[in-house]
């Protein structure tokens, strides 16, 4: 019982401490290093990132959404929605009604983005606040007639340092204040594609550069006096897996190109048939034992990847490490996009700031859970989403959270305490009820001739 009282009291005190940190408008910086696979943290050294984690929290695996590609998952992070709900279903898309095409070089049409409301829009419309962005996908698009108050048009030629300098300036000096900001960097994704994640020498060099960039970001925040009061989340959109020229699935060996259009390629290919859908499906179904072929209606429910017009009639999903090609034309040694249950596709999440615990590790959350957590930190009312706030409660200082092992320990402790107390009561009762060894036999008044034998 004493243990339960102590835990309850400490939980209430934690909640009070958490609330006191929000006397000033809370601020949040969301950072993505594209293609940062979760187990890079175990396989390489990251002194700056580990210092960041030591003073904050780490989620070792973030289960992202299918398909595990850049545009879809970045939009899931900031909307809390599966791809079928937010509408960014691939890096390349086609809309049959409007005949419009979407690609990473043709992504500025609000038509593609308006099926959801990203958090930077909500932050500006709900409160007298500003949002800022440095290259995060979609932030340079007029979504619901709104862009962040401060943003940079996407250009991969702009250095990380310049992006950081702009973001920190906006966080420091803006009116109304910037309370939500995003920062995006293309690595280690670009190098993961080029070398493959199993190239230890090259990936060691690239990941050391990323760790140095994290060190630069933290130093800049400290220098400007932002570090103590700013909440910072560092995460990614997906992981990376090793590919090779020995694991190609050549569609040209199975079907003539005149029979279909390929909207998005490997490792999840979106097929728009030009002839009968069933005929195209039959030709592709037995193309390779290392590729699953689905009619749209048969896409597994666990992918949450059916209910949107931008998902094509036939979807091809390659096995991990296999590449779908046309006439053997691929130079990638690493790729992503595969089944989102694969650990190699999972990123991580680390966070630091007044909203987060210190030195806390957690196993897994879903990528859509990040959105309701961010809304909570900023005091925003979230739009309907697929995330679950309770999945992230253990990361936050203003939430009382007991994980399963702790809950089991409390129950066992309580049962032991109750058992011990019950045993003591029984023992005491037995002691009181046992007659003294030399007590005289008490006679009833109506006993005439007692036996004293």
Automatic annotation (TrEMBL):
This is Bis(5'-adenosyl)-triphosphatase ENPP4. One of its GO terms (biological process) is blood coagulation. Hydrolyzes extracellular Ap3A into AMP and ADP, and Ap4A into AMP and ATP. Ap3A and Ap4A are diadenosine polyphosphates thought to induce proliferation of vascular smooth muscle cells. Acts as a procoagulant, mediating platelet aggregation at the site of nascent thrombus via release of ADP from Ap3A and activation of ADP receptors. Residues 1-18 form the signal peptide. It catalyses: P(1),P(3)-bis(5'-adenosyl) triphosphate + H2O = AMP + ADP + 2 H(+). Its EC number is 3.6.1.29. Its cofactor is Zn(2+). It comes from Marmota monax. Keywords: Blood coagulation, Cell membrane, Disulfide bond, Glycoprotein, Hemostasis, Hydrolase, Membrane, Metal-binding, Signal, Transmembrane, Transmembrane helix, Zinc. One of its GO terms (cellular component) is plasma membrane. Belongs to the nucleotide pyrophosphatase/phosphodiesterase family. It is a single-pass type I membrane protein. Pfam families: Phosphodiest. It is found in: Cell membrane.
């Amino acid at each position: 019982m004493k243990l339960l009282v102590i835990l309850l009291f400490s939980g209430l005190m934690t909640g009070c401490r958490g609330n006191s940190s929000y006397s000033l408008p809370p601020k949040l910086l969301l950072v993505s290093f594209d293609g940062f696979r979760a187990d890079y943290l175990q396989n390489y050294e990251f002194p700056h990132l580990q210092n960041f984690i030591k003073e904050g929290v780490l989620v070792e695996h973030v289960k992202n959404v299918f398909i595990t590609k850049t545009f879809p998952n970045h939009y899931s992070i900031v909307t809390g929605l599966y791809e079928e709900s937010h509408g960014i279903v691939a890096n390349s898309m086609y809309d049959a009604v409007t005949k419009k095409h979407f690609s990473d070089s043709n992504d500025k049409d609000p038509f593609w983005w308006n099926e959801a409301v990203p958090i930077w829009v909500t932050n500006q419309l709900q409160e007298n606040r500003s949002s800022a962005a440095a290259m995060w996908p979609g932030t340079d698009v007029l979504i619901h007639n709104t862009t962040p108050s401060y943003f940079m048009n996407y250009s991969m030629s702009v250095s990380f340092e310049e992006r950081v300098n702009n973001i920190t300036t906006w966080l420091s000096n803006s009116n109304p204040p910037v309370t939500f900001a995003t920062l995006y960097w293309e690595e280690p994704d670009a190098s993961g594609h080029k070398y493959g994640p199993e190239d230890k020498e090259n990936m060691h060099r690239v990941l050391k550069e990323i760790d140095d960039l994290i060190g630069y970001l933290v130093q800049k925040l400290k220098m400007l006096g932002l570090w103590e009061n700013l909440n910072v989340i560092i995460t990614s959109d997906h992981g990376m897996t090793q590919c090779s020229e020995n694991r190609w699935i050549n569609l040209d060996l199975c079907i003539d190109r005149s029979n279909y259009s390929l909207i998005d390629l490997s490792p999840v290919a979106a097929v728009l048939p030009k002839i009968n859908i069933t005929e195209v499906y039959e030709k592709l179904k037995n193309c390779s034992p290392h590729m699953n072929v689905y009619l749209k209606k048969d896409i597994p429910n666990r992918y949450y990847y059916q209910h949107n017009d931008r998902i094509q009639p036939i979807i091809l999903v390659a096995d991990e490490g296999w590449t779908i090609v046309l006439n053997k034309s691929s130079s990638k040694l690493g790729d992503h996009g595969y089944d989102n249950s694969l650990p190699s596709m999972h990123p991580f999440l680390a966070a630091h700031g007044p909203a987060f615990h210190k030195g806390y590790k957690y196993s897994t959350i879903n990528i859509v859970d990040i959105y309701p957590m961010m809304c909570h930190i900023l005091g925003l009312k979230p739009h309907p989403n697929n995330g679950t706030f309770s999945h992230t409660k253990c990361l936050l200082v203003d939430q009382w959270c007991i994980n399963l092992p702790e809950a089991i320990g409390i129950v066992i402790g309580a049962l032991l305490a109750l058992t011990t107390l019950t045993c003591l009561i029984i023992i005491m009762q037995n002691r009181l009820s046992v007659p003294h060894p030399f007590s005289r036999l008490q006679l009833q008044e109506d006993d005439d001739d007692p036996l004293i034998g």
